[in-house]
Write a structure and sequence with these properties.
This protein has 483 residues and is of the alpha+beta class. It has 15 helices and 16 strands. Helix 3 links the parallel strand 12 and strand 13. The structure holds adenosine-5'-diphosphate and magnesium ion.
Length: 483
């Protein structure tokens, strides 16, 4: 998938901008003390504020303000010391206030920038337009009764951060990498759980097409896309649709569309409303939000090492950019790696983590948190390889045994007598035996059939049960054959 579409009249380029709604990790809602937890019984978590009762008064939740600032700093963005909550007016059955409290002209976080990691190992910078705080709406349930719709207000008033990107993305892969990076950042920061299945992170995808390098075209916005794969599919479909419309002589109208997950298409939902349709105005129940510089500085001082910084550090330790990207993609994965690499060769530790352990976990459909092999145990195995106690090949056997028994690598190596032979005398004897048993092959090798080297190595390894040190076998064999 590239960002270029070959149309009948020539090439078209995709232009993409994402609005990500990320629910703030907070026990209570943005302006009320009701629980913001996921999955409660319908309408069990609704205060008078969330139900839009007359005379109710919103009170800002400090935890949400702190987390919005924290996220802004993680996005390398400007923090606005004064921001304003405004009413965004519209009618919807699941919006009892008749407006959503949001931020518009003065959001809490301004321009920022993040790096995205592309599949080929390269990195691109993507601009962040702003981050603002807003309330979530409730939920209409249309599938509970044949004639009626129900409303569940548990979600009403939940704290959301809306993170808006600049229209800097050019391919579906870049959009996927962007969502993945935002999710990693908020998880590292502990400001959102990034759980797209439960809707605590969802995406509005803006797509337009243009001739490469020309002015931006008219965009369509696809609402509430809830997985990275769907983001890619929605862009792919929508960009093609726009090219077909334009090439058939039609015009793109700015509109809001829905993504149909069943057939991977988008369809029109409503024509796009303009900002003035919402009659934004500052909420008279809330004062402007003024932050002390020391408050922001205090948060800055507690920021953890973020994925990009960690990735750079891991690359400096000798990891490939690809491995470093995979490992830092999840906070617990990076922490696991640091334990495996503790006192070990980092590159070897990374190989064993990404190739063997993550592979096995993936196959078993298990999370790293439920790994039968602990980080310390994997580190133990890596140490045995590094100091030549066992070969990489034997290590795979040991690993399989660790996976099923939960035993330490050293215990398995002892019990099964898998210690690698590094005694020159023993290796030399076996090399001699194998050469003596195959005089015709030795002659062929000396006559120029180089490939037979592998045959000899294979025989020696087989006869030693894989326990001979491979480098020593190679050296000795070479000197015998060539000597
Ligand atoms: P709205 O509230 O109208 O959706 P926002 O400012 O919240 O506006 O979001 C606009 C989003 O659309 C941003 O992510 C921006 O990058 C993106 N965008 C703006 N212009 C284009 C365009 N021509 N093509 C694709 N995306 C665009
Ligand atoms: Mg929007």
């Amino acid at each position: 998938m590239s960002g270029i579409i070959k149309g009948e009249t020539g090439d078209w380029e995709m232009v993409i901008g994402l609005e990500i709604h990320a629910q703030v990790l907070s026990e209570t809602k943005l302006f009320s003390g009701a629980s913001a937890a996921f999955g409660g019984a319908p309408n069990a978590q609704v205060s008078p504020v969330d139900a839009g009762m007359p005379g109710m008064l919103p009170v800002i939740n400090t935890v949400c303000v702190e987390k919005a600032v924290r996220t802004g700093l993680g996005l390398n963005a400007a923090i606005n010391l004064e921001s304003v909550f405004e009413r965004k007016n519209y009618f919807y059955p699941d919006l009892p206030q008749g407006y959503q409290i949001s931020q518009y002209e003065k959001p809490i976080v301004g321009n920022g920038e993040i790096e995205i990691d592309l599949p080929d190992g390269s990195v691109r910078k993507i601009g962040i337009e702003r981050l603002h705080l807003e309330q979530d709406a409730g939920k209409s349930l249309h599938d509970q009764h044949p004639q009626k719709s129900f409303v569940d207000l548990n979600r009403s008033g939940n704290p959301l951060m809306e993170i808006v990107s600049k229209p800097d993305l050019r391919t579906p892969e870049e959009a996927a990498a962007y969502v993945t990076k935002i999710r990693a950042i908020v998880r590292y920061l502990d400001t959102c759980d990034g759980n797209m299945d439960e809707g605590s992170m969802r995406c509005d995808v803006n797509v337009s097409v243009r001739r490469p390098g020309a002015e931006f075209g008219t965009r369509c916005e696809i609402k509430n896309v809830n997985s990275v794969r769907f983001v890619q599919q929605a862009i792919e479909y929508e960009a093609r649709r726009q090219v077909e419309v334009i090439e058939a002589g039609g015009k793109i109208v700015q509109e809001t569309r829905l993504f149909d997950t069943k057939n991977g298409t988008t369809r029109s939902m409503r024509s796009k409303e303009d900002a003035h349709d919402y009659r934004y105005f500052p909420d008279p129940d809330l004062l402007p939000l003024v932050l002390e510089p020391s408050f922001v500085e205090g948060i800055k001082a507690t920021l953890p090492e973020l994925p990009d910084a960690k990735k750079k550090r891991f690359i400096a330790m000798g990891l490939t950019p690809y491995d470093a990207g995979v490992i830092t993609g999840e906070r617990d994965r990076a922490a696991f790696f640091e334990k495996v690499a503790n006192g070990n060769d980092p590159k070897l530790a990374a190989n064993w983590l990404t190739n063997e352990l993550l592979g096995a976990l993936n196959k078993a459909e298990k999370d790293l948190a439920d790994s039968p092999v602990t980080a310390e145990q994997l580190g133990g195995l890596v140490a045995l390889i590094a100091d030549s106690t066992i070969s990489g090949k034997i290590a795979k056997e040991v690993f399989a045994e660790m996976w099923t028994t939960g035993k330490d690598a050293a215990v398995i190596v002892d019990e099964k007598g898998l210690k690698q032979v590094t005694d020159t005398g023993a290796i030399e004897k076996l090399v001699n035996d194998v050469l003596a048993a195959n005089p015709d092959k030795v002659a062929e090798y000396r006559g120029g059939k180089d490939k037979l080297f592998g045959f000899f190595v294979g025989q020696i390894m087989k006869q030693s049960g894989g326990k001979m040190n491979p480098a020593m076998v190679n050296d000795l064999l070479k000197s015998k054959l060539e000597g």
